[in-house]
Amino acid sequence: MFNFDNSKQVFLSKKDKSSIQRIDLPIKNLCEKINQKKDYFTTSSCSGRIVLIKDETKKQPGLFLFRSHKKITIEELKHSLENIKNKNKSLILFKQEPCLLVVSCRNKTAQWKLFQLSRNNGWKKSGILSIDKKLLIELFSTENISFPIVEKNNLLVDGNFLNIIVKKANENLEKCWEKIKRLENLLESL
Prior knowledge:
Blueprint: H1 4-13, H2 25-36, E1 40-46, E2 49-54, E3 64-68, H3 74-85, E4 92-97, E5 100-105, H4 108-119, E6 127-130, E7 135-140, E8 145-151, E9 154-155, H5 159-186
Antiparallel strand pairs: 1-5, 2-3, 2-4, 4-8, 5-7, 6-7, 8-9
Helix pairs in contact: 2-5
C-alpha cells in the first residue's frame, strides 16, 4: 500500500538524479513551496530550456549537444552550431521547451485542486498522470518551439532566422518564468 508521508520523506531526501543535479533556479522556490505543503511533493521539474538535441527516439549519453536553462545569445547559438555542424551526422533539432512540474498528491481532492489551479493560470497542457495508489499530476506550460536545424552537417536556416528564433525562445522562457512565479504566489490558496 502506498504511504504518502513515507514516500514524500524518502523521495525528498534522495540525491537529485537530473543531468544538471539540481533544481533550476527559476523554479526552485515553487518546488520548495509545494514540498512544504502537507498534501504535495515534487518528483520532477524544469523551468524551461533551450536545447540542441539529436533526433533520437531513446535517451542516451550525448543526446544533448547544447542545453541552457537561461536566456541565450545569438553568439552562443552560432558557436554551438559551428561545433555541432562538422561533428554530427544525425539530424539535429532546436528546441525551446516549456516549464514542467510533476507533483505527487496525498489524495484526489488535493490532486484536483492543484490541477485546476494550474490549468486556470497558464499551465494549459497539464494532465493527471495517475489516479491509482500514487496520485500524480504533470503541469506543463504551452511555450515551445521545435524544428530541425542541422542535417548532414548542413545548417538548414539562415542568420536572420536564427536572430528571430533566439529572440522568440528567450521571450518564451520569460513567459514560463512568469507562470512559475504566478503559481508560486497562488499556492497560498491550497
